[in-house]
Structures are given as structure tokens and as C-alpha cells.
Amino acid sequence: MTYSFLQHYWCFIVALLGALLVFLLFVQGANSLAKSLGGTEEGRRLVYNSTGRKWEFTFTTLVTFGGAFFASFPLFYSTSFGGAYWLWMIILFTFVVQAVSYEFQNKLGNFLGPRVFQFGLTLNGILGPLLLGGAVATFFEGSNFIINKENFIDADSISNGQWSMAVISQWANDSHGLDALLNPWVVVFGLAVVFLAQVLGILYIINNVADEEIRSRGRKRLIGAAVPFVVLFVAYLVHLMLKDGFAYGEDGVIYMEPYKYFNNLIDMPNILVVLIMGIVLVLWGIASEVFAGKFSIFNFQCSMHEGIWPAGVGTVLTVLALLLCSAWNNTAYYPSTADLQSSLTLANSCASETTLRTMFYVSLLVPFVLAYIIYAWRAIDNKKLDKEELYSDHAY
Amino acid sequence: MNDLLLNIDESFVDWARAQFALTAIYHWLFVPLTLGLAVIMGICETRWYQTRDTFWRDTAMFWQRLFGINFAMGVATGIILEFEFGTNWSNYSWFVGDIFGAPLAIEGIVAFFMESTFVAVMYFGWKKVSPGFHLASTWLTGLGATISAWWILVANAWMQCPVGCEFNPDTMRNEMTSFLDVALSPFAVGKFCHTVISSWIIGAVFVAAVSCWYLWKKREERLAKESIKIAAWVGLFASLGAGATGHVAGQQVAQSQPMKLAAMEALYNGGTDQGLTAVALISPFSQPDYINEPSAPLKIEMPYFLSMMATNDFHGFVPGINDILNGYTTPEGKTEPSVDEKISRGRQAINALSAYRKAKKEGADEATLNDQLTILNKNMQYFGYGFMKDKHQAVPFIPVNFWAFRIMVGLGCIFILFFAVLLAVSYQYPKQLFAKYDIAALPAWHYIIAIILVPLAYIASESGWIVAELGRQPWTIQDMLPTWVGVSNIDSTSVAVTFFLFLFLFTLMLAVEINILLKQIKKGPERH
Question: Cβ contacts (< 8 Å) between B100 and chain A: which residues?
Fold first, then answer.
């Protein structure tokens, strides 16, 4: 295994984690629609209990995504988190609130009342996907940071108390990440992720909750989420294919290349196939629920309500393809709009070969982890959630 | 710089320190109960599996309900810490991330997924999976939490005693040379054992307190008695284990962090035949005058015990604060340079690094580059000192270390006594002494003592972490990176705002959690 292979391999693993995270944002999507999906308080509680059996997967994937990025590309971790402070802090605040909201909302002794925590779940349901999507969009649109490693060894300034001078990666303005939201394309992508999360959330609830009223409301809401998702996603995809991208040569010097991301897909046809497959599967998953019973082609599964699976797999494939497109094929995956040569590439931001090689062996455990997750998931979901379970079993 | 943070100045360094301290202290309110209660609820469910007595199933479900309420807070407060290394300590993240990042990533892959997967089966799977699978899930939830503790403590141990790495002047960072040295360092092993075992004390104290409350109120007698027995065994084993592992930890600190040990002991001037200080008149609020005072005032000590603890030799040499600052030679002839000399050599290392990088950029010949590298390598072990202006920056805040250590050890001794007595009373053994005591019919003040021990257990637990982390300062990585070089470039206002937001949010959530726990305890177990 060469150093370059390890860099690309870990880019793939991090991209896969990111893709799984976007799929698992169905928890957030469903929570943001809990009131309209649930209809009644009992229905709302069903929605929360359905996502409540899965919320920890999303949380854990987010944490592992951050940890894996730290281990494999530490300069990205220090630059993005240290620079885009407010963007990441807001994301984290919403997830902190989410973590306790399930357990606390209906418990005796919750003196804040259930509404406070339900609001927290709704807030996380919207802001989480929006800002995470926005953060991912900056991989293509760029961010406002400068890197200078020589700052670190200005010992005179440091010992005289000018600590800010010592920082290697610095944001080039005082907004600390919020400036990303001034780029309309970052907002477009963020909103696309919000609506995708809602699509996946509705499909998940339809699959997981055995309640015809909720399923019926879900099917109606599905079009309301799917249409804006498709419009926003297609708009962003077209923009991405037509925009200049951040490339680098063998000498590591970064330059702008016209149609860079389109060229990446042409240069990497496997990724293009994965992207197309992913998009088709997402659309199939949506259509299978919208048109179920109307066209026999969508009745290929044993029963209805299985649209979450093609849509989920499709989401993973699509996001994976996009993230690989942002980083493979000599592309600067975290570009700087303040100083082009500060942009991060796989080569200039990665961990050492020893660390990547060690982590490679650790990553061999991932199939086992996935296996027991799937086993446990199926065990818990072997019977769909219904109202009876709310009163007969441990429930939020 | 090494103040208690009572006088937080406007610099963002101290706000960053304050925020990390706040989030870490809050996180550590919930994690020990998760680790400790996991053992007890696992034992209860194992008894159910063995006996199929529904009492044990209901008891396990009761403790799991309380576990779940606390677990959510542990998760909520933990996510901030994972990302805070990046948000507030970006230089640190780059400088040591090649080594530090790996344990965090492994923690996520191996431990967090195990916890999050099987906790869902544990909560929701009673009627969906077989009793064997459910029992396995309960233990795997605890195992996941324990494995998580392993990896984060590997990372923290590395901060205290960095091993398995070398500095790369071309990439300007430390890089891992041996993963096994990092993952299995004696410091990591010792820290893991001490931290996890002391967490079991929290679980045991909690269960004992809840059970004693039930006995006081004449409720749930069987649950209380059986739970007390389990808690007493776990608690006694854990208290004794914490003492033993604490001794090992103390010796490791003596070898790798002598300044921390000196601060813990308020040992201004060391030497051979050093006594262990039981108590001294140290003001909690200001740094004592360690330069001019020969020793801490009104010191009561156990002769020779510090030398014994630190060196396994009653006559062993233990350096004091001034010895470390001014340099010393041990009786065996080992010389430690003064901090001023370390600062000078650290500056040489930094200047050599700067010259090397400049020369390389300008295309200098190999001989020139090697000259600079030689100077760098010769002085690299003092690199971090090069960022200091004054030798006294190397001294941590003595009063907090001194008193936190004593609080931890003092309470630890009380817990050993408490669990020994609890065990004896609950089994009424030895009969000659305890046959007359019925644990369900003791005077109320006995039960109240058990309840009062709950906050004291938390105070002891937090005190340990305060010693570990504040004692290490000014270093984020011992001898390698002081706090003021490890930060991100964020204005202090932003960090102050998030500090108070976290303070408000976590305090509010803590209040809700405590209220919910109390109501659930009052409600009692559900009979199925």
C-alpha cells in the first residue's frame, strides 16, 4: 500500500461515513415533520419513538465522521473546526439538545414540559441538515481561511503574549464560518439536504410505523418534500458541473480548472456510474411510495412501504460519489477563497503514513460493526411500531 | 496564566481553557454513573437470566431506566468535547493530531457504535429479542462505554506522557512512530484502570443511596436489600482497586510529571526522605510563595511516605518546585537542567526549525540543512519550553492541585470504610459484630449518610480529574506544547459567549435530569 493509496482509501472511508450520515439524517427529517406527520399527540409520539430507536446511529456517525476526519486529515479538522467556529458550534448545540430531548420530553419530573424538547427536536431537525449540508457545500464552493505553518515558530511573538499570531490555520474574517451562508449555492445545497432528510424521514416513518393515518399523511407530505428536493438538487448539480473547480498539479500548486467537477466524473467513470445509480435509486424510492398501487412496476417488493431502502441506498451512493468527486483526481477538497495555495488537498492535509496504515487495519473492523448494526436493527424492527407499543413497553 | 480561572482575563486562551474545563467537568458528571451502573444492571439482568425470577428482571429494568436518563446526558455533553479539540485548540489539533486523532477515531468505530446499537436493544428489545440476546446487549452496552473510556484515556494519557512519536520538521508536527507504544503505554493502562474502577464507585454509591432511601421509607425492601449487596461488593472492590491503581498512577506521575507531583504535595523544596503531606495551610485562592517559603506552613506529614510512594524507596529523592525550576542532580547522579536552561534550549530548537524551513525553501545545500537539524534534534525535548517567557510559567496552580488531591484521597478512604461496613451489615457478618443489625431497620441517619455520599462521590471523582488536568498545565502536551500555543484564533468574545451558552444549557439539562431521576426513584420499579 503506497502513501497515496492510503490517502485515497481514507478519503473514501470518510466520504462513506459522510454519506451514511446524510442517509441517517432521516431522523432529523422525520423529527422536523413530527407534528404534521403525527397529526395527534399520540401520532407525534409514535414518530418520536420511531426515530428514537435510531437517533443514536446518526449521532454516533456524526461523531465518528469527525473523529475519522481528525485522524486521517488533521489539517482539515484544525482548519475547519478552528476557523468555522460558529457554524460548527450551532450544529453541535442542536445535536446536544437532540440527545436529551427523546429521553426527557415525556418523563415525570421534566419541569420544562414536553414542548421545549419537541421544539429542540424540530430545531435540530431543520438546522442540523441545513448547516451540515452547508458545510459539505463548502467543499465545492470554498471557505475563507489562510494557512501558514511558519506562524507557529514565531517564538518572540508567542512568548510576548501575541498568541493569535501563532495559529497555523486562521479564518480570514470575523464571521467564523457564518459567511458561508452568504453564498447562495451553499444555501441551495443546505436546503436540498433539508428536503432530502424530510423525504427520507417520511419514507422511514411510512416503513416503520404501522399506522394507516400516519402513512397516509406521509404520502401526502412526501410530494411536498420531494419536489423542492429534486429542484434544488438538480439546480446544484448543474451549477457544480458548470463551475470552475480547484485542481492541483504534481507539484502541489493549486489552480482553477474550468468544469473541474464535470471533468472528474468523466475521468472517473466508475464514480459517474455510482452517482447515476444513486440518483435513480433515490427517485425510485420516492416514486415507489408515491405511485404504489398505481403502477405494477413499483410493486416489486413483497409489500409496500419499502421505499426507504432504495432511497437510502441511493442517498449513500449519491453523496459518496459527490464527496469523492470533491477530493479525488487531483482536486483540492477544502478550497480556500482567501488564499488559493492554502487550499487543502489529500496530500497536504493528511496524517502520516504510519497513522493512515494503522487506521487502515482498524477500518477492517468496519464490516463487523456494520454487520452487528444490521442484525440489531432488524431485531428491533422485526415488528413495526404501533400505538399499542407506546403503552406496553419502554417508550419515549 | 495558571490561575484558577477565578480571574478569567480577557485573553481567549483562558476562555478556551475555561470552556474545555466546563464541558469536561459536566461530561464527567454523567460518564462515571454510566460505567458504574452498567456493571450493576448487568449483574441484575444476569441473575434474571439465571433464575428467571421476575423480581430480577424488574430490578434490572428499574436500574436501566435510571441508566437511560443519565446516559442521554453523557452523550449530549460528550459530542462537544470531540469537536472542541478542533474548534478551540486548532494548533494543538495540527501539532499532535497525527497521534491524538487515531484514538478518537477508533473510539467512534469500535466503542460508540457498540454502545449506540446495543443500548437500543437494551431499552426496546425486552419483548423483541431472546433473553440471551437481551442480556448480551446489556453487557455490550457497558462494554462499549468501557472501550470508549479506554480510547479516550489513551489519548489523555498521551497528553500526560507523550510516547511513540517524533517531530517532523517538514510537516511541522509530531507524527506517530509506534501505535502500540501509544495504545498500550503504561500511563494509559494505569489511567484506564484507575478511572474506570473509580467510576464503579459512583455506580455503587448511587445504587446504595437509592436503596437506602427505599429502606428509610419502608419501600421496595427486597430490591433495596439485594441491590445493596451487589453495590457493596462492587463498591468495596472498586474502592480498594482505586487505591491500588492510584498508587501506580502516583508513581507514574512522579516519573513523568514531577512538577505535577510537587504541586499536588505543595513541595516547594524537595530532597530525599520526603514525607507525604496530610494537610497544610495553603490558601485555596492564591499561589503560595514557593520561592521564599521553605515549605508549606503548618504542614502535617507522614514521614518518608512521599519518597516511598514516588520511588518505592523510603529514602528516595523527590524534587520540589524550586528544584525543578532551578535544576537538580539526584543522589544517583542524574542531572535535570533548570527551566531557564530548558527555555534557552527550547528557543534554540524553535530557531533551528525556523532556519531549517527557511533554508529548505531557499534551496540550501544538505550540509546547511543537516546543521540546523542537528541543533533541532539536540534540543527537541525542550521545544515546548521555547514558548515560555518566564520560568514560573512552568508552575501549575498549587492550591487547586493540593486540595483536590486531598479531597479525592480522603473521600476514597471513606468509601472503603463505607462499603466494608455496608457489606458487613447487609450479610450480618461477622456474626459477633453485626448479627444484631438488620439493614432494613437501621436508624434514619444511617441511610442519610449513604445519600450524602452521592455528591461526595462526584466531588471525589471530579477532584481526580482536576488534579490530572490542572496539574499538567501549563502543558496541553507535557513538555511539548503549552496552552497558549495550542489555541485557535478566535476572539475571546465568541468563546465567552459559547462558554455561557454551554453553562446555561448544561446546567438546565442537569437540573431537569436530577428532577427526573428523583421522580423515577420515587415512582419505583414497575412490576411486569
Answer: 70
Q: Which residues contact A37 (CB under 8 A, 6 or more apart)?
A: A30, A43, A44, A47, A202, A205, A214, A217, A218, A221
Q: How many CA atoms lie within 13 A of A128 on its CB side?
A: 33
Residue bearing cell 499536588: B264
Report whether B40 contacts B234 (CB < 8 A): yes
d(CA B389, CA A161): 9
**Contact call for A355 and B80, based on CB within 8 A:** no
Give Cβ neighbours of residue A200 (< 8 Å, ≥ 6 apart): A23, A25, A26, A29, A308, A311, A312, A315
Domain boundaries, chain A: 3-142+183-392
Q: Which of A68, A155, A352 sits opposite B347 (nearest CB)?
A: A155
Task: Report the distance separating Cα B510 and Cα B516, nearest Å.
Answer: 10
Distance between CA atoms of residues A262 and A120, nearest Å:
39
d(CA A278, CA A12): 16
Q: Give the separation between CA A245 and CA A253, rounded to whole angstroms.
A: 14
Instruction: Express each pLDDT in A306-318 by its tens digit.
Output: 899 999 999 999 9
Q: What is the pLDDT of residues A32-91, one digit of tens each?
A: 999 999 999 889 999 999 999 889 889 999 999 999 999 999 999 999 998 999 999 999
Tens-place pLDDT, residues B379-427: 999 999 999 989 999 999 999 999 999 999 999 999 999 999 999 999 9
Q: How far is CA B160 from CA B4, B157, B187, in A?
A: 20, 5, 8
Helices (H), A209-307: 212-242, 260-267, 269-290
Q: Do A351 and B89 touch (CB under 8 A)?
A: no
Nearest neighbour of B108 by CB, restricted to A68, A77, A104: A68
Query: Do A70 and B101 lie within an 8 Å CB cutoff?
Result: yes
Q: What is the pTM of this model?
A: 0.93
Residue B90 is nearest to which of A59, A82, A366, comparing CB atoms? A82
The answer for residues whose C-beta is within 8 angstroms of residue B413's C-beta and 6 or more apart is B243
A385 φ, ψ to 5°?
Answer: -75, 135
Count of CB atoms situated within 10 Å of the CB of B528: 11
Exposure class string for B288-302: b at 16+ Cβ within 10 A, else e: bebeeeebbeebebe
State the DSSP code for B481.
Answer: E
Substitution target from B112, B114, B354, B361 for chain A, most A beta carbons within 10 A: B112
> Which DSSP state fits B396?
-
**What is the residue-wise DSSP string for B236-270?**
HHHHHHHHHHHHHHHHHHHHH-HHHHHHHHT-SS-
Interface pTM, i.e. ipTM: 0.91
Question: What separation in angstroms does the CA of B124 have from each of A165, B55, B516?
Answer: 52, 19, 20
Cell of A250: 504534481
Chain B, nearest residue to A162 by Cα? B484
A287 pLDDT more than 50 = yes
CA B251 to CA B75: how far, in whole Å?
33
